[in-house]
User: What shape does this take?
Amino acid sequence: MDKRQAYLNGLRDGIPIGLGYFVVSFSLGIIAKKAGLTPVDGFFASFFAAASAGEYAAFLMILSSAPYFNTFVISLITNARYMLMTTALSQRFSQKTPIWQRVLVAFYASDEIFGATIARPGYIMPTYSYGLSTVAIPLWSLGTALGVVAGNVLPMRVISALGVALYGMFLAIIVPPSKKDTAVLLAVIASFISSYLCGILPVISKWNSSTITILLTIVISSVAAIVRPRADVEQEEEA
Assistant: This one.
């Protein structure tokens, strides 16, 4: 597949992600408006951050007039999971991929963009990720801006209901690989069960959700890598 076709495929796959982002980011726009941001502020905040939980935390910190340092620390902790995601992506690039392309892909590696990219077979072509970002990020930013303008017109129940579209995208990302690979299926099931248990256990349930996500990602992915190393999978594909 050439770079142009990979980019076009990214544009195609980015449409449902972008539409889901557009709907979900309305709720972020409401918080941004309460924090005193203008539609232009909301647009560029989402354009350069592209992180729902991170932006939500930052907007709340602005709303509470928190110091810059506290806002920085909270944003860093909330977005720490992206370090794991981009590390995983780096293992899938060709060795000839220049560093600036790796950085550009990592900059917009949101949860859904990461999932769609990492699910591709073989080496990752940066242009595919560019195609995803070309559609998804502007729609995410536009949704936040419109949320600042007109988000309060819609009832919060309606906005929360529309947010279910985001979970639909997650299912569309994890279901196909789970059908093809038993190890992936077991890892997905383990993540569901572990997340549920962490939400009800007395001590762990009080932890930050991002911290729990990072710990579960490290533990489950490490166990999966030990049980079925990537090299074994590649040898089976070659055979």
About this structure: The chain is about 80% helix and 0% strand. Residues 232-239 have pLDDT under 50 and may be disordered. The first helix runs from residue 3 to 34.
